[in-house]
Amino acid sequence: MITVIANLKGGSGKSTVAFNLAVWLEHNQRPVIGYDLDPQCTFSDLAMLRKEIEIKPDIEIHSVRAVLKDQLLSHGDKEVLVDVGAANMAAMKEAITAADRILVPVPPSQTDVWATQRFLHIIGPDTDAMKVNGNQQTLAFVNRADTNKSIRETHETEAALRMLPGIDEVLPQRLRLRTGFRRSLSEGLTVFEMWPKSKAAEEFRALATALYPDVSGQA
Ligand SMILES: Nc1ncnc2c1ncn2[C@@H]1O[C@H](COP(=O)(O)OP(=O)(O)OP(=O)(O)O)[C@@H](O)[C@H]1O
Ligand SMILES: [Mg+2]
After folding, report:
1. 121-126 average pLDDT score
2. Is the confidence at residue 80, as pLDDT, over 60?
3. Ligand 1 pocket check: which of 9, 14, 16 to mutate, most ligand atoms within 8 Å of Cβ?
4. What's the structural domain count of the chain?
5. Rounded Cα distance, 102 and 135, in Å
6. Which of 72, 73, 111, 179 is most buried (most C-beta within 10 Å)?
7. Mutate to test the pocket of ligand 1, among 182, 194, 204 (most ligand atoms within 8 A of CB)
8. How far apart are alpha carbons 46 and 190 in whole angstroms?
9. pTM of the model
10. pLDDT digits over 172-198, tens only?
11. Residue-number span of the structural domain to which 111 is assigned
C-alpha cells in the first residue's frame, strides 16, 4: 500500500509519523520503502543516523527531489511511505496520483484547519493531482493534541476536519504533544523503542494499528 503523509504547514508532524511508522512496520516484519521528497531530508537523515549508529532495523529511504508515479507503484507488496511537504509541490502532486491513501497530520488549531482546507483544495478533484485511484482515501488525525483534556481545541479541530470536503475519515487516534516524540528522534529512535511503556508509545501504537490493522503490532 502506498501511503503519502502530507500537509502544507511545516511542523505538523509528517516526518515524525513517517519515521515512526516505517520503523514500526519493519519491527513487525513488514518491509518498507520510504521516499523523502522534502528538501529538508528529515526522514532520510533519521534513516541515515540509524545506519551510522547501527540501530536495527534499518529502514530504506530514498531521498529524491522528484518521483514518478510508476516508480512508487513498482514496489509490489512492500509498504511504501512518502514524506512530502509544501516545499516540493510538484513531487507532492505526483506522489498523490499514486497514493492509496493520504495521511494528513493536523495540529489542533483553526489556522491548521484552514491550511488543511487549502491543501485539500490543491490536491482536490479539479486539479492536476486529481484522484486517479477511485479507492483513494484521505485520512486526517490530530497530532500535537493538548494533554489537558479540558482544552477544547482538539475536539473543535476534529469537528472542523469532519466538515471539510475531501476528508474521508478523521481518525479518533490522536497523538498528544509529548516530548518523547522529539527526544527519541534526536537519538535516531522511535518513541516506542526509546520508551516502550510511555503514553506517547501507546498513542503511536494505537494510530499505527488503526492504519495497518492486519499487522500484528508486537513492537
Ligand atoms: N506529537 C508530538 N509531540 C511532541 N513533539 C512532536 C509531535 N509530533 C511532532 N513533534 C516534533 O515537532 C517537530 C516537527 O515535527 P516534524 O518534523 O515531524 O514535522 P513536519 O510536518 O515533518 O515538518 P516540515 O514540514 O518542516 O517537514 C519535531 O521536532 C518533532 O519531533
Ligand atoms: Mg518533515
Report:
1. 80
2. yes
3. 16
4. 1
5. 11
6. 72
7. 182
8. 10
9. 0.96
10. 999 999 999 999 999 999 999 999 999
11. 2-207
